[in-house]
Design brief:
Length: 96
Amino acid sequence: LPLLAVINLSATPFQMGLLNAIGSAPVLLVSLFAGVWVDRLRRKPILIAMDLGRALLLATIPRAALTGGLSMGQLYVVTAIVGMLTVFFSVEITIS
């Protein structure tokens, strides 16, 4: 995603830093809650749901690029939510 931001959207260094910070923030903000929540549920459905969620979110980027609607705002939102889903997925793998 950072490479896409630079090449297609001519992102500034500040925007790149913000994009990376948004991608890393879920580890600090969500991991504790994710561990507690994931530990109480069945593991396989969580892994499948997190992967499907990430795939669907990431599929919005090429669709937006083809229609000419790709923006930094979309990249920020997708990066944040994909980061949260990745935390849930990683916590699930670690607990297993």
